[in-house]
Specification:
Length: about 250
């Protein structure tokens, strides 16, 4: 899992990452790309090189890869304003993968247990399976880890992100929040957007790395930190591996 992947292909690396992460989808086209799944097709427009706040508000599919997510034990990168890998989410892409309506998503949910905690996650594209595997790898009796699951922030919840018209990742059954009081959230600090400052991490790296190995990114690596939050974005992790040591 830690070996770099070959990026020897005529396709852009971000398109390759999508194809590897979601083998059930079809990548159509050779210059202008489309993504097909379940009888639906969306345009996969390339990165636009806009400022990060604009990308977060209205990204293309390619813009989701504008900032590479780094699976490593460092929080140094998040000191840069708007270093938020994964916060740019293309609604059409996620709706294609997981369902465009709450009723569709809910048909595919299953419950994943972690000690006293219960998370609802989608079965589509192996999300619940990967979450189960990630949580099985950690010691839930460890005194550093157990408090994260004594009380959880949540999992599936069809809702908008506060103050926006964009659906939360929780709407698709691909995100889980561990104990909010341990993980922390930037808005609760009174910080100014784009100038959040330091993050005092209390989430053990063992949990972060187990989740990353199974395709989940962690909000603790964001400038606008959300330390309770894990989100299934295997394409972002594969993109990082594909571009490791190479020109992006």
């Amino acid at each position: 899992m830690n070996e770099p992947l070959s990026a020897a292909s005529s396709q852009p690396v971000w398109i390759q990452a999508i194809g590897l992460a979601f083998p059930q989808v079809q990548i159509l086209g050779s210059r202008e790309f489309r993504i097909a799944y379940g009888g639906e097709t969306i345009a996969a427009d390339p990165p636009t090189a806009r400022a990060m706040p604009e990308l977060i508000a209205a990204p293309t599919v390619g813009d989701q890869f504008a900032i590479a997510y780094t699976p490593s034990r460092t929080l140094d990168l998040r000191a840069t304003p708007y270093h938020d890998p994964g916060r740019a989410r293309h609604d059409g892409f996620l709706k294609l993968l997981y369902g465009a309506e709450s009723g569709v998503v809910e048909q595919n949910l299953e419950t994943v247990a972690a000690g006293p905690a219960r998370f609802r996650a989608t079965r589509r594209h192996g999300v619940a399976c990967q979450l189960t595997a990630a949580l099985a790898e950690i010691d839930l009796n460890d005194d550093r880890i157990a408090p994260l699951f004594d009380e959880i922030g949540g999992s599936y919840n069809w809702r908008r992100i506060a103050g926006t018209d964009r659906l939360s990742a929780h709407s698709y059954g691909i995100a889980v929040d561990v104990n909010a009081s341990v993980g922390g959230y930037w808005r609760w600090t009174g910080a100014t957007e784009g100038n959040v400052g330091a993050y005092r991490n209390r989430v053990p790296w063992e949990l972060v790395e187990s989740m990353e190995r199974r395709g989940f990114i962690w909000g603790g690596k964001w400038h606008h930190f959300d330390g309770m939050h894990f989100e299934y974005r295997p394409d972002l992790i594969l993109y990082s591996r594909l571009t490791e040591g190479a020109e992006q």
